[in-house]
Amino acid sequence: MNRHTKWILLPCLLAFASLASADIVKVATWNIEHLRAENNVGAVKRSEADYEALAVLAAELDADIVALQEVDGPAAAARVFPSSEYDFFFSDRHNVQRTGFAVRKDIEVIADDDFLALALDGSVRRGTDITVKIGDQPLRLLSVHLKSRCFDDPLDTDNRHCGKLAAQLPILEDWIDERTEEDIPFIVLGDFNRRFDVPGEGFYAEIDDADPPPLDLVRAIEGVESECLGGRFPLYIDHIILDEQAAPMMIAGSFEQIQITEADEEQFALSDHCPIAVRLNVVSAGGPTPEEEAEELFNAIRELVGETQAKVEQLHELIPALKE
């Protein structure tokens, strides 16, 4: 291939690289602290300016799928995420502290039943369970908000908070084990109210126990410290956990935390949690990888360029005859 041909192919290859990224999806989680639909009501009273400031954060997050916690349903979510761009899916719990999702309208969603067992006796939050399709690749997502106030104490600590979190553990583990046996990639994300990076912490070790095989969970934020609210709480309690099939989709270095600063906190009623997100490169089930697609397109264009060059050479051969 001569230098001229390479220059013809270069812009084409750049275009194909862009096409290969068409299935990049940003997945996030955000606890928006008692978010209500109406101004100046509830445990966290918010003015119009507060809602506008939250919407600015959501626009900066710019996620395709957001697991939500402490949001009182679709009307409340629409104060932060434009309903013209997102569809909303929430648990049926009649409480402001609902779990749910905001999902961009161009993504196909199947709403599964509430994960009711996670609520124990109804005193804690249900999980919201959905399946999205990216191309023809299904991805199961569970938004959770587990029992608070047992952030890093041993699970067998003798208080009702750790007792309830300990009771939720085998229920969540069963859900994870069932998804593993279904052989569909999944992500569990949300407010776990648990610091997994504390030495000897037992909750995460139990759900990531390699049973049943090939279960192997990956935490998007392992070893990362939070800078939310000036780093007030450096160890995360919000987590994005991917199974062994979803984890390879996660783009290295794509984790981000949208910052709510202490100055923001003084000016607006926002949230005591900052949104976190990762990007996934989702390859359609059974289809070629982006690299394979790019190679196929490259070969097709190289063949076309070769045919064009042959025609050009034929034309050059005719030029002397045309001048006679």
Provide structural commentary.
This protein is of the alpha+beta class and 324 residues long. It has helices at 3-20, 48-61, 74-77, 160-182, 203-207, 262-267, 290-323; strands at 24-35, 65-71, 86-90, 100-104, 108-111, 128-134, 137-145, 186-191, 218-219, 238-242, 256-257, 276-281. A six-stranded mixed β-sheet has the order 3-4-2-1-12-11. Strands 5-6-7-8-10-9 form a six-stranded mixed β-sheet, with helices on one face. Strand 7 (137-145), helix 4 (160-182) and strand 8 (186-191) form a beta-alpha-beta unit. Helix 1 (3-20) runs antiparallel to helix 7 (290-323). The longest helix is centred in the last third of the chain and has 34 residues, at 290-323.
Q: Gap between N and C termini, in Å?
A: 33 Å
Strand content: 15-25%
Q: Mean of the pLDDT scores? A: 90
Rg on CA atoms, Å = 25 Å
Unreliable runs = 1-22
Fraction of helical residues: 25-40%
Content-based structural category: alpha+beta
